[in-house]
Amino acid sequence: MEKNADDPLLPLPKKASRILVAGSHADNLGNQCGGRTITGQGLSGNNLTAGTTILEGITAAVDPSTEIVFKENPEFDSLKANNISYAIVVVGNPPYGEGYGDNPNLTIPEQGQKTFHNVCANVKCLVVLISRRLLVVPHLDQVDAFVAARLPGSEGQGVADVLYGDYGFSGKLPLTWFKTVEQKPMNVGGPHYDPLYPFGFGLTTQPVKPTN
Fold first, then answer.
1. Which residues of the chain have pLDDT under 70?
2. How do residues 116-166 score in pLDDT, each as one tens digit?
3. Beta strand ranges found along 15-95 (DSSP E)
4. Which of 34, 112, 168, 190 has the CB geometry, 3.0–4.6 Å to 205, for a possible disulfide?
5. Which own/partner contact pairs does 149-153 have at CB distance under 8 Å and 24+ positions apart?
């Protein structure tokens, strides 16, 4: 999703003075793999399996002159005068299997929502949501671009490849994304069809050709 189609943030520029990477899932292999990875419930952290985190993928993708600042949970006031070109916020739910992940509100943890707000209220930002299911997404009015990466597994480099235009976006929603849990179930053609994103919604972009 792009907030401003006339001035899109995606694909992200590889060359920038300073970028911020934030969020509980930016540098966490276990979180981006989710449940049913090595153990039944999965594990948070970077000691679960081999791979690349999304932060590592971003680091490999950007120009060497671009300064990367990583703060998992930056405070609101600390972002106001940091000369940040843009931010990437990677949030989602912790790993879980059946039962342990039950959440009647279908929300991300409160700290993730706070990080989302703190960053996107101050800086041009992209939010990447890591989740095995659709969630209620807060503060979307503050976001310049939004990517649902589902559970990308062990290769965060693949997420960065698309964010930075080495490969294009092509995925489309195979179901309707609701605004609130009270709307469920929501189906195309239903009497109260008012989705956050409709069935089949998705961004289509072409790879960016490298320049000499």
1. 1, 3-6, 81, 210-212
2. 899 999 999 999 999 989 999 888 899 999 999 999 999 999 999 999 999
3. 18-22, 67-70, 86-92
4. 168
5. 149/32, 151/32, 151/33, 151/34, 152/32, 152/54, 153/32, 153/33, 153/37, 153/51
**The amino acid at 93:** N
Q: Structure tokens of 30?
A: 């276990």
- Three-class SS of residue 77? helix
Dihedral class, residue 23 (left if φ above 0, else alpha if ψ from -120 to 50, else beta):
left
Q: Which residues contact 12 (CB under 8 A, 6 or more apart)?
A: 86, 88, 126, 163, 164, 165
**What distance in Å separates the CA atoms of residue 93 and residue 212, rounded to the nearest whole number?**
41
Buried b (16+ CB within 10 A) or exposed e, 22-61: bbbbbbbbbbbbbbebeeebbbeeeebeebbbbbbbbbeb
Nearest CA to 149 among 164, 157, 140, 159? 159
Given a contact cutoff of 8 angstroms between Cβ atoms, the answer to whether 149 and 106 are in contact is: no
Closest to 133 in 3D by CA, of 148, 111, 117, 113:
148
